[in-house]
Amino acid sequence: MCGIVGYIGTREATPLLVEGLKRLEYRGYDSAGVAVQNGTGVEVRKTAGKIARLEELLTEMPAPGAVGIAHTRWATHGAPTTPNAHPHIDESGQIALVHNGIIENADALRRELHEVGYEFHTDTDTEVLAHLISMLFEGNLEQAVAATLTQVEGTYGLAVLSALDPGKIVVARHGAPLLLGLAENGERAMFVASDVAAVLGHTRKVVYLDDGELAVLRNDGYELMDLGSLDPSQPPRFIEKEISHVTWDLERIERSGYPHFMLKEIFEQPDTVRNAMRGRVLEEEGTARLGGLHGIFDRLNAAQRIIFTACGTSWHAALVGEYLLEEYARIPVEVEYASEFRYRNPVIPENTVVVAMSQSGETADTLAALREAKKRGATTMGIVNVVGSTIARQTDGGVYTHTGPEIGVASTKAFTGQLTVLSLFALMMARRRGMSILQGREIVAALRELPEKVEELLSAQELVSQIAAQYADHPNFLYLGRGAHFPVALEGALKLKEISYIHAEGYPAAEMKHGPIALIDEEMPVVVLAPNDPVYSKVVSNVEEVKARGGKVIAVVSEGDRVLLEKVDHVITVPSTIEMLQPILTSIPLQILAYDIAVRRGCSVDQPRNLAKSVTVE
Ligand code: G6P
């Protein structure tokens, strides 16, 4: 998804901007560009394709100057061409801007601007902003930006510079993340970015913007103000904000020797599972302590219903959460696609807690669903990875998964981090609703052993790799599971299709006979989740149904399984644990299988085509 980086200081801007853009590559993009303001005006260099192409362009035609903005674009309005790439400029070429989000009334604005003589050179919604700022410019850039934004409907994270009001970058936020980076070691410089990864090479001191805020950056500092207060007839309302110190390491964002981020992240799971529960497990009391829920304990105690809302992998995690909370805490749970929830007319009775589940904390649909739930009076809670993200800040209470940055577009460690937190949440809720201390202690003991089991599981990578070698050229896969392993099957299928472009479907194992069974023949690999749990014998029957039709079965089973060993084509064994935690273990071989197949097919594992890491548009 689109990324923004900006720099104003005393050094050459373009190397810093390009470096920042590279840190955002993981988000997925299809074009890139920079604009630099210097003594002679504004210089723009942009291109369709990869950042490497932009670097070539900058070598051929350097753009010197110490004030610059840059962008990676993920096309929404208009094809990924060079003209459509950001930055966009006004007709004079003196104002340049980069924009994340969507201007919803762009067509109407374009018509109006056209009528008064403005020519458009791109298919983007963003170009209207450049012309509008130019039309409203009366000598002060922030006032022109603010006046423009009063006419705009939609979402934006915006950075603007101009040779007509030099020595500043104006940034504003509504619905698309933006943060300021404060230079360290006495350097006179400021950064702006849509993602902290872009500035981490230079500073750990950041200020997160909220919706409705505008900031003016100069090389000696910044002013933050309420966007609505920039009426030239009145003094602006300045905002004082706390500086956040980012603790994530740049090194952690880099690959540490692994060929792909995805593999690195798969192998980090013993640690990330451990981090998700660090300081949260109470041995004696047999429960979990989740400090971020402190303010909503009363409402959680009174809750009669929980609704999860999420997208993609996070939606799958939420489905596992439904099983855990209903099974252990006996509380009714629903799981909703955020994109559906926000436009339905959802019934939210009193005493409902709505949980937004999101790795990035910035997914547009999840955020909108959260706001809808708030509007309807629900207590809101977040289960989020990125600290300080919008969802994390807008919920009444929450639990961070503490997974660290996830760069591979296909989510892996974030998923198991979410499952770990869901187990802690289910345990805590269950203990408040009558689960015995003894059962609580059993769960705690199993949680403690979990990271080692993940480690053990990862050492069996070679076996999964051999299986991958046999099936990498198959065009279709089916994934089956029951109970909490049905969402694991969905997630396994999603991983495979995301990164290997193989068509894969997840299905509840018993439901297979109502349709997908028609697809089964010798060419159809079927991945079956069959750990030792109460529905094991039922799953074995489903396996028989597949085998009777010649399907090839790859079964994920618990250690010690003898029954399926005799019946299926391949067995992947996972260590035994309690039922609550099994999905964490069974999902990992499916990640490795998808990864290995994608590598064998020569796919771009970390940046699969058409996908974005963080989807900040609807
Ligand atoms: C995108 C990503 C998925 C992710 C989904 C939800 O589609 O490619 O990997 O699961 O967004 O993202 P979130 O950050 O809200 O978990």
Please explain how this structure is put together.
The protein has 618 residues and is α/β, with parallel strands linked by helices. 36% of the residues lie in helices and 22% in strands. The protein contains 20 helices and 26 strands. α18 (536-547) links the parallel β24 and β25 (552-558). The protein is globular. 6-O-phosphono-alpha-D-glucopyranose binds next to α10.
Identify low-pLDDT runs: none
Largest sheet, in brief, is: 8 strands, antiparallel
CA-based shape = globular
Rounded to the nearest angstrom, the radius of gyration is 26 Å
What number is the mean pLDDT?
93
Structural class: alpha/beta
Report how far the terminal alpha carbons are from each other: 12 Å
Structure annotation, total helices? 20
SS elements, strand count: 26
Residues in helix, % = 25-40%
Percent of residues in beta strands: 15-25%
Bound molecules: 6-O-phosphono-alpha-D-glucopyranose
| Strand order in the largest sheet | 3-2-4-1-10-9-11-14
Give me a quick take on this structure.
With about 625 residues, the protein is α/β, with parallel strands linked by helices. The protein is built from 20 helices and 26 strands.
List the helices and strands and how they pair.
Blueprint: E1 3-8, H1 13-23, E2 31-38, E3 41-48, H2 51-60, E4 67-73, E5 88-89, E6 95-100, H3 106-115, H4 127-136, H5 141-149, E7 156-162, E8 169-174, E9 179-182, E10 190-193, E11 205-208, E12 213-218, E13 221-226, E14 244-245, H6 250-253, H7 261-267, H8 269-277, E15 281-282, E16 287-288, H9 297-302, E17 305-310, H10 312-329, E18 333-337, H11 338-341, E19 352-358, H12 364-375, E20 379-384, H13 390-394, E21 397-400, H14 413-432, H15 437-458, H16 461-471, E22 476-481, H17 485-500, E23 503-508, E24 525-530, H18 536-547, E25 552-558, H19 563-567, E26 570-574, H20 582-600
Parallel strand pairs: 17-18, 17-19, 19-20, 20-21, 22-23, 22-24, 24-25, 25-26
Antiparallel strand pairs: 1-4, 1-10, 2-3, 2-4, 5-6, 6-7, 7-8, 8-12, 9-10, 9-11, 11-14, 12-13, 15-16
